[in-house]
């Protein structure tokens, strides 16, 4: 088992407007919700105390759908300081010129996925103008994964067999409800480590069921299991510490306030 060393990813929302066949989201059973302000503040507190090489503000959902997306990007920058890179992946549907210019002062780097090219194109141009475009992703076609066996899709990524960056490095993924998942593929939240209400620095992670079907090499021997039962999931205990009184949410002073909306795209 490995100590938690970094909050690598925060899921602002588990909602998405799309229903892509190559994504785990359409069949995701857990609630599709927006992260509330207090949970987000606690996640950022832990991200500040347990920083990684970057902080990813995308989850298994479309972050720009969060009604306070712009404010939340500013709060993330304030929490982790000027030197930790902020990154985001978006389908681009709600990424307007106004939104791109609004978040530009945070220096977040934004990837646009080509799920809907007719929508992604204007987003790419807006992000170019704002100077925060990181790149364009067509991974579903040329770097495909099957979400550790959760979707019926081919696996063509060049990362097949490469070391997993999650378990041994002690990285965790904060879900929209504040629970801590062991990696970004855990769409069902089937093996939770704890929550942002816990003392995250005291928690530990370990391989779990999805590791056995993932294209990455977790680099750790799985625990033995009784014959015929499959992989035994290691669940670490954790202690409750209550809600830290030191956390307060603040309204960031930003030039643009995004209101989520738009129609669902099939």
Protein model, in words:
With 266 residues, the protein is α/β, with parallel strands linked by helices. The protein has helices at residues 37-49, 69-80, 97-103, 117-130, 139-142, and strands at 2-3, 6-10, 55-56, 86-90, 109-113, 133-137, 171-174, 179-181, 194-195, 204-205. Strands 2-7-8-9 form a four-stranded mixed sheet, covered by helices on one side. Strands 3-4-5-6 form a four-stranded parallel sheet, covered by helices on one side. Strand 5, helix 4 and strand 6 (133-137) form a beta-alpha-beta unit. Helix 1 (37-49) runs parallel beside helix 2. The relative contact order is 0.20.
List the topology elements.
Layout: E1 2-3, E2 6-10, H1 37-49, E3 55-56, H2 69-80, E4 86-90, H3 97-103, E5 109-113, H4 117-130, E6 133-137, H5 139-142, E7 171-174, E8 179-181, E9 194-195, E10 204-205
Parallel strand pairs: 2-7, 3-4, 4-5, 5-6
Antiparallel strand pairs: 1-10, 7-8, 8-9
């Amino acid at each position: 088992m490995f100590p938690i060393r970094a909050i690598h990813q925060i899921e602002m929302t588990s909602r998405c407007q799309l229903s892509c066949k190559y994504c785990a989201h359409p069949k995701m059973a857990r609630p599709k919700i927006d992260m509330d302000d207090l949970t987000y503040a606690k996640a950022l507190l832990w991200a500040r105390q347990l920083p990684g090489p970057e902080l990813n503000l995308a989850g298994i959902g479309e972050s720009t759908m969060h009604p306070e997306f712009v404010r939340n990007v500013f709060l993330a920058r304030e929490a982790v300081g000027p030197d930790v890179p902020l990154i985001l992946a978006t389908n681009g549907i709600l990424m307007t010129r106004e939104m791109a210019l609004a978040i530009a002062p945070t220096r977040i780097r934004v990837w646009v996925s080509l799920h809907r090219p007719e929508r992604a194109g204007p987003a790419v141009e807006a992000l170019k103008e704002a100077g925060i475009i990181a790149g364009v992703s067509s991974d579903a076609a040329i770097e495909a994964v099957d979400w550790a066996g959760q979707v019926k899709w081919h696996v063509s990524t060049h990362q097949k067999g490469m070391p997993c960056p999650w378990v041994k490095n002690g990285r965790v993924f904060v879900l929209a409800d504040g629970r801590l998942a062991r990696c970004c593929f855990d769409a069902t939240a089937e093996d939770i480590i704890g929550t942002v209400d816990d003392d995250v620095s005291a928690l530990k992670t370990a391989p779990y069921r999805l590791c056995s079907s993932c294209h990455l090499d977790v680099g750790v021997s799985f625990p033995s299991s009784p014959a015929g039962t499959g992989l035994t999931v290691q669940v670490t205990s954790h202690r409750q510490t209550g809600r830290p009184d030191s956390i307060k949410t603040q309204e960031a002073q930003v030039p643009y306030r995004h209101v989520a909306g738009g129609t669902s795209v099939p």
